[in-house]
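Honest question from a wet-lab person: if I give you the sequences of every part of a complex, can you actually get the arrangement of the whole thing, not just the pieces? Trying it with mine:
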Amino acid sequence: MSAEIICIGTELLLGDIVNGNAQYLAKQLARLGIPHYYQTVVGDNIERIKQAIAIGTSRSQILIFTGGLGPTPDDLTCEAIASFFDTTLEERQEIIEDLQRKYSARGRVMASSNRKQALMPQGAEILYNPTGTAPGIIWQPRSGITILTFPGVTSEMHRMWEETAVPYLQNQGWGKTVIYSRMLKFWGVAESTLAEKVNPYLNLSNPTVATYAGKGEVKLRVSAKAENSELAEALINPVTQKIQNIAGLDYYGADKDTLASVIGVLLYQRGETLAVAESCTGGLVGKMLTDISGSSDYFWGSITAYDNRVKQELLGVTSQDLETLGAVSAVVAEKMSAGVRLRLGTTWGLSVTGIAGPSGESNNKPIGLVYIGLASSQGTISFENHFGASRDRTSIRHLSACTALDILRRELITTKY
Amino acid sequence: MSAEIICIGTELLLGDIVNGNAQYLAKQLARLGIPHYYQTVVGDNIERIKQAIAIGTSRSQILIFTGGLGPTPDDLTCEAIASFFDTTLEERQEIIEDLQRKYSARGRVMASSNRKQALMPQGAEILYNPTGTAPGIIWQPRSGITILTFPGVTSEMHRMWEETAVPYLQNQGWGKTVIYSRMLKFWGVAESTLAEKVNPYLNLSNPTVATYAGKGEVKLRVSAKAENSELAEALINPVTQKIQNIAGLDYYGADKDTLASVIGVLLYQRGETLAVAESCTGGLVGKMLTDISGSSDYFWGSITAYDNRVKQELLGVTSQDLETLGAVSAVVAEKMSAGVRLRLGTTWGLSVTGIAGPSGESNNKPIGLVYIGLASSQGTISFENHFGASRDRTSIRHLSACTALDILRRELITTKY
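Yes, you can. This is the full assembly:
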């Protein structure tokens, strides 16, 4: 038994909107443990919608539609469904009354085009829309096939799903098992390297382990299927623990954790404070740190020294450093971190200076060369990074900021003061 | 002739990510005037991928795949394609060499699992990935069918599409009528207000005008269909000109313009410089300004004074201001802007101080209260904003940063010094 999501709307085919409805329904199906192997997007065209229904009914038992329930002539979902299952549409008086009530509550008169929204396939159960005008249906047009329709408006769809569809599906005996996932997050390791290290776990069947990578980060999703979330967690916990042990410091957190939130917890626990000096990242490190509510407990502030004069006047970099070594150098990174730490009076000073491109490269300093400095009462250290001239400005800046945070994270975990 | 988008990845079926790749490709196909009637999402399962190919080839002539090109065992796109078209995979030496070059440039050694990414169907043309490790293919496995594959990583996919796939498709004679769009961007006006002002233009048929809104910004997409982009532009230009005249200062730019890029052009033309003092935005304003390559010409730097001590020591805010008025006040915003301007020696000083939430509200200062200060040789001014306690931290920070940039933009346009 599996479900298929069919999203209807030419705006999806034109790329005017992203398909957030499919993501929402996919998550919901996973949570209910209802398998789901296909999603289809099709435009406002009756023959193509019917073709999608033909394919869907050949491979799935529950078809979930979004979109195409409005009052305009290009809203064709109900018509296509009725035609495919060879039945007629009938006007439902209770929908007409519901619509008239809603319009009069808003001090308006129902437009005659809204009558279209009361036309439903014979025998279909109405799925009321508490907030909008487009009702949906739940219908078993033939044995083994269940149809659910929802409007494309996200907030209406969510409420109808949660209040009506979920209880219905559970009453039918579906959604008795749950799929529970934990996303493990890693920084400073390549996807292929991590996959080799945890290779035995990639072939498990329950829980399953899958790798993801993007923007310099590697993730492993550990998913278990069980009768309830406690049992699923009991399947997941030993596996995530073993993977974390194998990954060591490359593992930084799970689910909603970010590098910045993990650093926040560590600094807070240690009762320590942080100041940041940025050049090529221009404020991005500070932005990431202050994405976390409560970060004022440990993040005191930052100096973005985009111009070299600011590096000199506020951070203690000397004109000699800039002339002989250049702004993108280990020494300047270290002085920036020490300078901002001293100036703001914090436990730690963290700095980034590099060439984010696409311009700014020089003879022996390529785009993607980034130095990170870290200062504490124990002195300063610096780290040289080569993020590659083939990467774009946004990627290099993102990698630079995350790598700086990751360096501090590793230092906070491994050092005791 | 039509194209079909097939996105591969269990993470899409689990709802872990939203299908932004489908939206991007849909937009691109519309721009090229290539019809596209279906999108399919399928998991990392070879039989189901082959089934999607069977359906796709029965109704579309161009199949565009994203995802499933990585080095791990669940990356099955190439294998499924080769198997469906009854050919074998062969290791391409040139890909191995490219991968080795990329790894050694980053000071790493290629894992043996990466060799999998060099396995391509016999006869397929390689679509090189300039930024990542997963190459794609362009292949005509049989007459009338063209296959394109792209990695799921968005930035890599975009670059490969633009640099390689678009020229290829156009060489093949596809994309002969173009849909050409210009996205007009507005700040500081509600969608409904703008829609009323430009109402007559919303009913045109070529070009069409559609409104979009999100994250405080309003956009109008003006799209024309024509034989080439010059003819399409000739349809678009008079309409966009009239809309810009109606919108006045609320219009800030088009397409890739951002508030920060528009400010950059204005400052550069005036030969002026900018420094920023941030509190609740924590670096976001600086990050936005330095998203623009070349911003070092006019953006000298910023001080993020997250802790009140930093506001006092570096920005000239007094302890009396903080005690009597509080850090979130018009006076502190003005002093921060004047302080950073003085400290960094720039033409303009721009500041933001506010309560981004979810904590931090006080008796008469609600979440969403944000003051913006602007300092120049003419003195300082401040602006009080109420972004609303119902908004979340991310939205309030984004609105704060954009509004600060917009205030400077309006000042730069309307004042002459």
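Two things worth pointing out. The mean pLDDT of chain A is 93. The longest strand of chain A covers residues 178-187.
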